[in-house]
Every structure is written in C-alpha cells, then in structure tokens.
Specification:
Helix content is 39%, strand content 18%. The protein has 327 residues and is α/β, with parallel strands linked by helices. It has 2 domains: 200 residues, NAD(P)-binding Rossmann-like Domain (Rossmann fold, 3-Layer(aba) Sandwich); 104 residues, Alpha-Beta Complex (UDP-galactose 4-epimerase, domain 1). The strands form 4 sheets. A 7-stranded parallel beta sheet has the order 3-2-1-4-5-6-11, with helices on both faces. A 3-stranded mixed beta sheet has the order 12-9-14. It has a two-stranded parallel ribbon with strand order 7-10. Strand 1, helix 1 and strand 2 form a beta-alpha-beta unit. Helix 1 crosses helix 7, helix 4 runs parallel beside helix 5 and helix 6 runs parallel beside helix 8. The longest helix is centred in the N-terminal third of the chain and has 22 residues. The protein is globular and about 55 Å long. The structure holds galactose-uridine-5'-diphosphate.
C-alpha cells in the first residue's frame, strides 16, 4: 500500500516525503506550478499532473494501491489571495473537491489535510487553541476553511476520515541539507532575509511597523518543517490505529517572534547585516498569531524538536549551499 502525497514537490510536502521514505511506499502527484523537480525524492514514484484533473486521478488510483492521501498542494500566499481570490477558490477548493470525489469513488478513506493558522483571522486571545473562532480575513484562509467544512460533510456521508493540521509559520530546512524552502518569486520572510544576506537583493522590506506589538512589527509562531512533517505521519498512524478521527490540530511551537526579532536572529546566525526598509502594512496580515499545540501533544504525543534558532541555522545552511542553483 502507498501513501499519495499531493504537492510532494513543494516545501512541506517534500520534507514529509523524506520522513516517510524508508517506512512507506510514496507516490507524489504534483503539477510543478509552485513545486520544484529538484525537491522530488527519487525513491518516490512521481506523477506529473494536476489534482483537479479527473483522468490523472483515475490513473493514480487505478495504477497504485493508495491507502491514504496527504494533501499539501495549494496556493498559499496571503497577499496574492487578496488580489486573485478566484485563483485560490478554484485551485484550493475546486481541485480538492475533485480529489475527494475520486477518493470516495475508489474507496480511499484516509485524508491528512494541510490547513492554516490563517483560518483564525484576527484572534481574540494571545494563544490560539482549536476552540478559537474561525474568522479568516483573507481568501487564502477562507479557501482552507471551506475545505475543512467540506471534509466534515464528506466524513458524515461516506466511509471517509480525516485529520486537519492547521500550520502556523513553517520554517527551516532538512537536516541533510538536500532540500529547503524556496518559492518563485520568493515571498516568505525567512528565505527573503537569508537570500538578501547572501547578496541576492539590495534590501528587505518590513511590512508594517505600527502593529499593536512590543516593537510594532507582526508576531508569528515559527515551526520547523521537519516537525510539521512528523506531525503528518503521527496523524496518519493515529487514523490507522483509530486513535483519532475527524480531528483538527494546531501545529506551532507556542512562541511568538516579531519580524524585527527574526531579522536580528538571521543577522546573528549569518554574521551579516541586513539593509531594511520599513514599509506599509501588507493587506491581510493579522498582528499576532501564536499557537497552542497542546491538543496534538496530548492526543498524538507530538512535540516540536527545533527552536527558531535551529530553524534559521538549517535554512541558512541550505540557502548558503544552494542559492546559486536554479531551483
Ligand atoms: O518581505 C517580507 C515578507 C514577510 N514579512 C512579514 O513577515 C511575517 C511573516 O510573513 P510570511 O509571508 O513569511 O508568512 P505569513 O505569516 O504571511 O503566512 C504564513 O502563515 C499563514 C498563516 O497565518 C499561511 O499559512 C501562509 O501560507 C504562511 O506562509 C508577516 O508579518 C509579513 O508581513 C515582511 O515584513 N517582509
């Protein structure tokens, strides 16, 4: 039996494939629009295709004995989702419906879904639990929340069970140094800072300095991508063993760092100084997002192993090695 990884050539998907290989057969489905061939693991079977395409899915489910699906494939940029909402609803919601229809048709009943802290919107408590109200403030968050609702309905109607993982800010690179975080164009804070420190850009921009936070910049909860990857495997094994069914879990380290603090740590680890431009707020950004991950710790025994310094160290090792490579 194999696990199907939709989006296995992307950042979090590729790190999860690395953790699965050796213990599980892995099939990766990716259309390579935001993923990179260089992140693909040669020990996994790769299918280049779109999960919104029924014929591709027929082929995947007919040719492979799929036991479960981990679904990472999505557009995930808050700013872009505000400018191009229909792209987000079409890809993140529409294509997922096609995938779910085919899973039901072929009797594949286990689903691990990549959701996001963006479903909470502007939280009314400093630390966010799964009980917090979900009021997303951008189309990206709304698209993920819509899928969460669709999963609940699907599980009521069909032989189908799921775990939803709401990630906070994924960061860091694999310990092997073989894979790491990259987007094209780069959009995420830590790679933007590290690429700048490697001389790829003249300056970095900090979006907003007037938030209600101690230093005025946004606070986020960063969680190592390998810790996220391991949470998927625990969730899947929990479904198999009947320990969990149709649950939602936050994934974060429980500590908030401001944009200024992240820049400071990157400077410290790289030994280089950043040129910073202080600019306007970016639409769709809440001031503070920090997770309580107590629920997944209690139920599945997940504990994050890496702190922010280690995330940046691993990311710096990967970027220093690979920034010249066309990825
Ligand atoms: O050049 C930059 C890039 C980012 N930021 C700031 O740095 C923080 C982190 O920004 P990222 O773009 O790295 O991450 P987000 O918090 O916007 O988004 C992340 O968390 C979200 C959940 O809140 C979603 O899951 C999303 O996919 C994921 O990338 C934000 O305050 C952002 O405004 C800057 O100041 N300058």
């Amino acid at each position: 039996m194999s696990i199907l990884i939709c989006g296995g050539a992307g950042y979090i998907g590729s790190h999860t494939v690395k953790e699965l290989i050796g213990n599980y057969e892995v099939v990766v489905l990716d259309n390579l629009t935001t993923g990179f061939p260089v992140l693909l693991d040669e020990k996994a079977t790769f299918i280049h295709g779109d999960l919104g395409d029924e014929e591709t899915l027929d082929r995947v489910f007919q040719e492979h004995s799929i036991e479960a699906v981990f679904h990472f494939a999505a557009n995930s940029l808050v700013g872009e989702s505000v400018a191009q909402p229909l792209k987000y609803y079409e890809n993140n919601v529409g294509s997922t419906i096609t995938l779910l229809k085919k899973m039901v048709e072929y009797g594949v009943d286990k689903f691990i879904f990549s959701s996001t802290a963006a479903t909470y919107g502007i939280p009314d408590s400093a630390i966010i639990t799964e009980e917090n109200p979900v009021r997303p403030i951008n189309p990206y968050g709304r698209s993920k929340l819509m899928v969460e609702r669709i999963l609940a309905d699907t599980a009521k109607a069909h032989d189908f069970k799921y775990v939803i993982l709401r990630y906070f800010n994924a960061a860091g690179a694999h310990a092997s140094g073989e894979i790491g975080e990259s987007h094209d164009p780069e959009s995420h804070l830590i790679p933007i800072i590290l690429q700048h420190l490697l001389g790829e850009s003249e300056k970095i921009s900090v979006f907003g300095t007037d938030y209600e936070t101690p230093d005025g910049t946004c606070i986020r909860d960063y969680v190592h991508v390998t810790d996220l990857a391991n949470a998927h495997i625990l969730a899947y094994e929990g479904l198999v063993k009947g320990k969990v069914e149709n649950e939602i879990f936050n994934l974060g380290n429980g500590f908030g760092y401001s944009v200024k603090e992240v820049i400071g740590l990157c400077e410290q680890i790289s030994g280089k100084k950043a040129a910073v431009e202080w600019t306007e707020r970016r639409p769709g950004d809440p001031a503070v997002l920090v997770a309580s991950s107590k629920k997944i710790q209690d139920i599945l025994g997940w504990t994050p192993k890496y702190n922010l310094e280690e995330m940046i160290q691993s990311a710096w090792a990967w970027h220093s090695k690979s920034y010249n490579r066309q990825i």
